[in-house]
Amino acid sequence: MSKRTYHEMILDPFQEEALDAIDAGKSVIVAAPTGTGKTLVADYLIEKAMREHLRVIYTAPIKALSNQKFRDFKKQFGEDAVGIMTGDVVLNPTAPLLIMTTEVFRNQVITEDPNLEFVSHIVFDEIHWLNDEERGTVWEESIILAPPKMKILGLSATIANASHLVDWIESIRHEEVALIEEHNRVVPLEYYYFTKDTGLVDYDQLWRYYRRKLKDRINDESPFGPTTHLDLIRTIQRSHLPALFFVFSRKQCAIKAMELANIANYLRPAERKTVEDKFIHLFGHEIDWSSSTRQLKRLCSKGIAYHHAGLLPSQKVIVEELFLERLIKVLYCTETFSVGINYPVKAVCFDSLNKYDGRNFRPLANHEFFQMSGRAGRRGLDEKGFSFALVDLGYMEKSPPPKFQLNRLEPLTSQFRLTYNTVLNLTATLSQTQIETYFQKSFSAYSYRLSSERLHSELAQIQQKLEGTHQHLCEEVGSFNCPLKHHPKRKELEKLRKAYKSLGPRKQSRVYGREMARKIRTWEKLLSQTPKSCVPQQQENCYAQSKSYLTIKQQQQELQNALAALPEENAFLQEFEYKKTHLRQIGYLREDELLPRGTCASRIYVQELLVTELIYSDVFAQLDDDQLNALLSSVDFEARKNDMFHRTSVFDSTPVKEIAEYIQSICGQDAVRYDPRVAGITHAWSQGSTFVEVQALCNLDEGDIISVFRRTIDLMRQMREAVGDSALRSRLKVCMEKLDRDEAAIMEL
């Protein structure tokens, strides 16, 4: 049945098409620009399933989005109907609608959790995260292992190869998958670059101004003045707020918000009072607030704020609520704010078009830029949305701003990686033939087959062209035995000899002279043979035909190189066997049978080998509960670039390092991630220190400290599921309770 309206809303054609596909019982992938209304499709599916008393799982890439969806769906369906599982939070896990991170779902499908038996649909919000270098493998494994009777709804930003993705899903699930694509936005977006000198300009205008100013300059001094975020805000604040201002540095988010607050106030007295009341309601009396909460309140009272992963959960919540209520007019934020959470604005600003990706600075990819820009333009409020990018004209030649193009979006590629946990679970649940099929089902293997078939087909066509062209050519064409190539090179050689001779002995002995002599010797060797003697007519024919022949020959070489660069087709199966050998060596497998250590590690999803070895050692027995918390917080901890901690030794790390070295000696350096520097703050918190006292022990952002404690609780929850020792399970519960308090306790969701 065609859906013209859904709850009295007029549907866009792509939404209507998606709803029809859901009603037809199909799996569906919806790919559309940010802000076009993809979420409505998921809402419809969930309402339909709830009416029919079916269970639905909704997965999201980040906890903030999971938490937001949990709050939204609770309002819509009631508290009893909705549950959440995000690793560190488990509430109402048997509810008919269950919100979870994609990692939790992956863990359920790989262990064949019986709770999945009655789930009719799985919603993958932001399914294009399959492309994420760190976490993409989780989406791939989830899609491969999702039970066949469970229908998929995938929501994605615009992607270049959506049909490729859908073809892959159809090939592994043996079902029809409806691809619904929308390329147009309801609210069109305009893109501008900004400098103080140029104002708002397009890409071509920016370059014309830059070249004209360089041409007209009188001396060598730069003709360009500096441009700051304040210049851009002054330019747009009359008609383009509210705005998101993306800054790829947590520290700079706060600094820039404070700089703007020194010169601007966007709230009327009544709005300011509303903000202050909300802070008191959430945080209590101001005398008890942290300095960061006071700072945030001063900013929010002027309609300005910042948002990043280092904020306390409660601080994020109040910023998000105020933003939704349009009491924040300028929000400085990191890119995580662009993921899924529906906070549309009139304009999006970029402090820079380069970002640090953990290894080096690089330009934003097309899909990153358009994902973030897509937040601009509020449906029903704005005729247009705007994207503004700050540019430094002083670096135009050295680091030119990218020209982003929607028709050049990067295709999704597989990020599949094989963990020891996956190896153990596959070995436990699948036969060897099924395992081989599993790897053949990967998006990587599918992409390999497509690329291989395409390259072989193109090579065959090139070969035909070469054969057709070569019939009219001498076989020496392209070599120095051909007079067409030999004689011009011979003339070049003579010129080079004369130039070298004219240098004289002193200059000949210098670097450039020695380089000329080396080149002469090389050319003499190439031209040592007398070229083939060809009649003039043959030479004329070869001259006419050789250019196209050599171009085709070059294309052939490029295709052969591309084929050679493809990964080994059975690379994952080989790695699987390689890792199984490691697991046998360390006593996790006997042939293909999981031993007790292997069974334990199959239920641990973070540093499974190190955690299992610690469980089976006597290390825990040597530690009290606070030291145990400190140790477990060090597992898989990865410090940020400038993180610092007070030097402290809260437990003897030697036995842990010996275990780590043992694992690394067999499985390689990457098999263990462990950093005891963080142990001091967890130990202090576990002993009952206040949050302010813990902060004094490090320079971590408040939200990162909380993240350490929540991540440790999550690991202990996994350990409790993995071990049979009731005494250890009880002890872990006590340890979790010592961390799960005050600022680190989960807020009411």
**Mean of the pLDDT scores?**
86
Oligomeric nature of the chains = single chain
- Major sheet attributes: 8 strands, mixed
CA radius of gyration: 31 Å
**Range of strand content:** 5-15%
N- to C-terminal distance: 37 Å
Going across the major beta sheet, what is the strand order? 6-5-7-4-8-9-3-10
Count the strands? Answer: 21
Structural class designation:
alpha/beta
Roughly what percent helix? 40-55%
Number of helices: 28
Uncertain segments: none
Shape: globular
Summarize the structure.
Helices cover 49% and strands 11% of the residues.
Topology readout:
Blueprint: E1 5-6, E2 9-10, H1 13-23, E3 27-31, H2 39-51, E4 55-60, H3 63-77, E5 82-85, E6 90-91, E7 97-101, H4 102-110, E8 119-125, H5 136-145, E9 151-156, H6 162-173, E10 177-181, E11 189-195, E12 199-201, H7 203-216, H8 229-236, E13 243-246, H9 250-261, H10 269-283, H11 291-300, E14 304-307, H12 313-324, E15 330-333, E16 347-350, E17 354-356, E18 361-363, H13 366-373, E19 385-390, H14 420-429, H15 432-440, H16 443-470, H17 483-508, H18 511-526, H19 536-565, H20 571-585, E20 589-590, E21 593-594, H21 596-601, H22 608-616, H23 625-634, H24 654-667, H25 679-686, H26 691-695, H27 702-722, H28 726-739
Parallel strand pairs: 3-9, 3-10, 4-7, 4-8, 5-7, 8-9, 11-19, 13-15, 13-16, 14-15, 16-19
Antiparallel strand pairs: 1-2, 5-6, 11-12, 17-18, 20-21
